[in-house]
Structures are given as C-alpha cells and as structure tokens.
Amino acid sequence: MNFTDALDRKMEEVKRPPNLPTGHYIWQINKVPEQETFESSRTGTTFNRLTFQVACVSAMDDVDPDDLEEYGNVAGTLNRKSFLFTQDPEEKAQFERSIFQLKRFLEHCGVDESLSLLEGTNDVVGNQFVGEITHRPDPNDTEVIYAEIGRTAAV
Hints:
alpha+beta
C-alpha cells in the first residue's frame, strides 16, 4: 500500500469498501467525550450532543465470519456513540430519557454508580463495553450506509 501509487488509480476503479458487519463487538473508549451545542436545521430546536470516540477491540460470535473476512481486521476500527439532549423546555420527558440512556451506557462501561454523570464521563476513558453495530441508510443518498453503534451492554 502506497498513497502515491493509489493516486494513480482511475477513479472508476475505486470502490466503496464494505461497512463493519452487523452484530456485537467489544469497544473501548479512547478519550473524554466531546460536547457540542447545535441547532437543528429541520426543527430549530437546540440540542447538546455528547460524543464518545471508541475503538473496536474485537468482534463477538454473532458477527458473520464471511463478512468479517471481507471487511478485514476490525481491531482499532473507530466509531462513536452519541447522546442528544434537547434544550426545548417543552420536551422535559425526552431530556430525562436521554439522561437515563447516558446513565445506562456509563453503567455498561463499568462506571461506579455513586459518581455524578460528569465524573462518570470523565472516568470512562479506557473502559470497555459491548456495542451492537446496525446499518442505517443516509436519507439523502441511499447508496451511503452508516455503521452505527446501537444498543450497548456490559462486557
């Protein structure tokens, strides 16, 4: 593999690589999560997003071995797990559901329940969890499929 040689390839020869196959994987959190605030262009609602960068440790038994072989080595594959928190005061129930989902995720990562959520998010680096990869098509381009971490569990 040489980047300079790869640039000599015709664009028509470049094919989209396969997505990480669906199924369960063990993931490790790489760093303290990033937080950002943004406004939805569709609804105008302001959200906070908390995003954990994670790296794949290994695939579990339910991942198709043929799909894994086609994908290649999964160790070190990067992904993220995000949580959205609405800032709309009319959506208090949705906000509380998101807080609960974050709490459950931190528990799956082995964080001590006696910590605050802030302490837990800062204490989670290096911890592992089981995460299920699902595939979601891009609503604007059906040829683009995203491999996302859905449900999680403790290792």
